[in-house]
Amino acid sequence: MLVVLLACALWMQQLCAAFDDAICFGALTLDLPVRYLHIQLRNDGVNLTQSRGKLDISMSSHCRLRWEQIDNFDGSYVLRIRLWSSCESLTIMIRSPIGVLLCESPIVVKKENNSPLYAEYCDCPEMDAEEWMRNAQCAHYQQLNDDLEQWQTIDVEQMLSVVMQTWASPHQRFSAALCHYQIVDNQLYRQCFGEHSGFRIFVDEIFTSIMRKMRLPNTEFIFNLGDWPLERKRPNGVAIVSWCGSNDTMDIVVPTYELMKSVIDSMHTVSLDIHTAKGKVHWPWHKKKDTAVFKGRDSSKLRLEIAMLAQKRPDLIEAGITRYFFFNESLYTPQVKQMPFSDFFKHRYVLSIDGTVAAYRLPLLLAGDSVVFKSNSPFYEHFYSMLEPGVHYIPFELSSIIEKIELARKQDFNQTLRAMRQFVVDHLQPVHLYCYYVLFIQEYTKKLKQAPKRAAAKMEHVERNATHDTCTCATQNQPNDRHVRRMQSGEL
């Protein structure tokens, strides 16, 4: 019994005393749906790579809020805070399990201009987009630069003429859906085309979220509501904004609605996002299955072929189709049940296989702790050009997958896993997604032949949903409803 107690005491000593400081960074003062702080434990200047258990975190504030501590199981943590009301400041204390203060605690979260901290649905745009980007320390994105460089000038009137004759024409109403958006005096307006334009709610939500936080310049653009990019590469092509691009199209690609939705509703109605993808149960490498896994819809032939290959080589691959829509199930493998996302990381290798377009789950797979195998594909999201094959993921085709999995079993992937983790921290955090959209608006608008001065007659005004949270704005600078109606009627 004494031996057991001594062993437990020694284990607790190692657990609690094996780190002496932490690197802490994130977005606490910036008004985002969820504020967050990354906490990387260190010992003698070296990052720890194993969990040290729950940190002792306390918070004091007059805000109504919810907070949570996420253990990444690799020596790092994320503290997340969602406000439900505005307030002047909040104070955070972070301690190790034995009471050592971390992150230069107490951390006082307060804006330099003494403006309140705003909750997501506080409609308080106090600064212009340029100032917001400086505060957020937004980077420039080569993909966005490359997309916009395709046009020296964007003539929206001419662009609309082309759109009305092609994707917005009556005979195309079932095959395409897109909206003409205008931003005038920081109010959002739209006119949509196509029979199935329900995805406009995601675009509405993205831009109204941005406009609650800052004043955007007057601008207008065409947004594709479908997954497929629309405009083939050609001279004088139309500047369409899309969530996905491809090698043979010229659409301007922005972060997907799935990524943005997971940010806007995190800690509210969404439980799966870039910070929570791993799940609450940790599967260390030595306990993971030494196999590759894929579960998903039948949206590409490669997915079907991988599922059939898994039946021949279950020692290497666990794969299945969770829903048939495009292909006849009787000709392929039987349908299987969907898998909870975190269960993918019970396997050492996860397969990202593009469907009809890019597989939008890739950001969340990169946020896990299993090695990502990605199928070669002409489709891409806004961040793919920053990924390096062989560094952040293992590229594969059907002909090479067996050989690559067998080779992977003999390799040490610690460096790959570190590169994946760093990529997610550097490029796929909530602030990066907002930066991308704001920078798109700023740089795209510079290309316009003429920015709108008032909303077009057929435009529908999109209300900024500002009813969920209790807010007190430092300044009231939004157009009132009467002003909006006058703009729409052409009085202003």
UniProtKB/TrEMBL annotation:
Q: Where is the composition biased (Polar residues)?
A: 470-479
Q: Where in the cell is it found?
A: Endoplasmic reticulum lumen
Outline the extent of the Glycosyl transferase CAP10 domain: 215-451
Keywords, A to Z, come to: Signal
Q: Where is this chain primarily localised?
A: endoplasmic reticulum
Region (Disordered): which ranges? 470-492
Q: Which GO terms describe its cellular component?
A: endoplasmic reticulum lumen
| Gene Ontology molecular function terms on file | glucosyltransferase activity
What organism is listed for this UniProt entry?
A: Toxocara canis
Its ancestry begins with: Eukaryota, Metazoa, Ecdysozoa, Nematoda, Chromadorea
Which InterPro entries does this entry report, sorted A to Z? CAP10, O-Glucosyltr/Glycosyltrsf_90
The protein's name in its UniProt record: KDEL motif-containing protein 1
Its domain of life?
Eukaryota
Cited function: Protein O-glucosyltransferase. Catalyzes the reaction that attaches glucose through an O-glycosidic linkage to a conserved serine residue found in the consensus sequence C-X-S-X-[PA]-C in epidermal growth factor-like repeats. Regulates Notch signaling by glucosylating Notch in the ER, glucosylation is required for the correct folding and cleavage of Notch.
Report the leader peptide range.
1-18
